[in-house]
């Protein structure tokens, strides 16, 4: 019997091609899913960088494009270089052009954030040509809540003109300890009365909102009683914390606040014996989400602060922060070191944690959805 080789070989080729096609499709699907997940994780990052100007070859533009970064934060001083290197903010015209060029060249929807509280904590200083803004303490001492709204609107107007869309303000810490080196001493609190803090913070937020600027209240669950600075190391408020420090958060949330809440790197062993608020499910999932019913975005304070890096390591801490309930992480590169690889390393660590089952993939989807909802609400582009 003669075999027709053509008749035999042709079906075999068809089978091989089919198997190859199925394998290729599976590989492509896996590759697309990996890219989608990495892009979602990238949206969870707010990063700092060096540079007074930007173009398509700049580090920050490449970083936004390559890692789908969700937000950037600008500073006037470069702390790792002790001021020998210029950072981001030199004048109104320069800052406005920097933001325009980043948006133009990255072609991405990003939060452009700054710490503009007024008083001592304001990256847009009068000496650079920006508008002078009263500190929270001085606003509180005016005994006129409308002053808070006027100052908030003043900040908001300037931020909008410059191209910012997010202000890490106002501080809603209650001035429990006026000698507190990072809150009271710097005039960052409206009052020692939590009800007054709520009223003035709410008015300040109204002013920002009138100019379509997103607010971020801080530092949850309250940094006002501390006796040390979390930039430098761990802060324990177990023996100084007062329950009244939660009141501004509770009232603002009840009043419909749903923008962003920033966490504090503080330990309160009466609530969580092991972890600071930023890394604590008890604080973020239990207290903030379940008890206070906050529906907006939870963002960490800077993950490179001493309170975190000296005790947990940046990448492990990032994983723990997400599991605790943080939707976004700040990597300022402006504390002690400047590491342009830090965002990429953090994204990779989080991605691997999802792959390994250390982070439930659902957590990434939840955070991504909250971030996109907020961006859509304020038409962030």
Count the domains: 2
By CATH, the architecture of the largest domain is named Alpha-Beta Barrel
**How many helices in DSSP terms?**
12
Distance between the termini: 73 Å
Description:
There is one protein chain. With 381 residues, this protein is α/β, with parallel strands linked by helices. The chain folds into 2 domains: 42 residues; 335 residues, Glycoside hydrolase, family 3, N-terminal domain (TIM Barrel, Alpha-Beta Barrel). The protein is built from 12 helices and 12 strands. It has an 8-stranded parallel beta barrel, surrounded by 4 helices. A two-stranded antiparallel sheet has the order 4-5. Strands 8-10 form a two-stranded parallel ribbon. Helix 2 runs parallel beside helix 3 and helix 5 packs parallel to helix 6.
Features:
about 375 residues; alpha/beta; TIM Barrel; 2 domains; 8-stranded parallel β-barrel; two-stranded antiparallel sheet; 12 helices; about 10% strand
